[in-house]
Amino acid sequence: MKKSIAILFVFLYFFTVSKCSAQDSTKTVSDTFYFNGQISLWGNYNRNDSLPLYLGIRYIPLIHYSLRFPHQKLLDFEASANIFGSLSSHPFDSLNTDGNITPYRAWARYSTKQFELRLGLQKINFGSATLLRPLMWFDQLDPRDPLKLTNGVWGLLGRYYFLNNANLWMWCLYGNNKDRPWDIGKTNKHIPEAGARYQTPIPKGELGFTYHYRTVDTRDMGYGVPAFAEIPENRIGLDAKWDLGVGLWFEGTWISKSKDVGNLTNQEILNIGADNTFGIGKGLTATFEQLLVASDKHAFAFNNNVLFSGLSLSYPLGLVDNVNAIVYYDWKSNAAYNFLNWNHNFKNISFYLMGYWNPQNFLLPQQGNVGSSYSGQGIQAMLVYNY
Question: Does the reported pTM lie above 0.85?
Fold first, then answer.
């Protein structure tokens, strides 16, 4: 994959330079380079954990280089890393340390006014929902995470933008086998994945159709799930959003495997939501979503299902202060997930003070590692510096 990025970068560079030179020799190529990043420090105390005190540091350096050509053509490259270290302890008793360095983003892109082609480790996300997202196919974004961290995927993504504001996405992914929120069974990283999305304006809103194909490996799942090295899986997504004074949306996914794996053969994930800003004080913004997750041997049987509700309330205390509360409720287990965050912003520094009161067994269906760190009851302080 890294060799492919280098080859594409060199090819697009010489292709664009030669084409632009032939069309207009009087114009010059301009380049831009910048280096920035983010440093975050946090401390977490969770009284339910065997190691209740958790301290951490994360550094995400980013390098970006771009070449601008005549006729709005652009060739750019971006690379960043996720460098973190942590210490968890039971004061005066136990101590545990952890750390890692992983690539965070690494891509090359060629773009024009209506088209872009991007190759490498990148973030791919789409859809209308914000709290409980059926179309969270390639990312792990958690609305409670101040850093908005998510793993990238290795692949090639092309996007074309029509003049009527419609757009077409097409992608091919390869070499990805990390767990993703709605995956049942690991992706076979040796077989390419592929998909497409078409998004078009509709009266008062927009409508999107999405499709994705991958090959699933269930050999390590256990729990009585039939073991197959290769199961073709098809995903179909539909989402729409309208601005009718109040924001309204719908988002749904149907995931179907071509081999019989019992009640995990078919999944249906449906979401409806709304948001509005009320004229209370400086403006109270409320977002509500209702999620249905079902799975069965037969499609659309809806025999094995769970219901989740999500509510987010956000209120600005001033120009640099904001309070946000997020509550999820699991109707099957009668369990509530509660999160409260106060945010204060300086020039390049943000401070967050967060409290959470959640079940010890974390069952939210969509959340990644960041979300699961909020299991139990605790408090967290975070300082973030962007340069």
Answer: yes
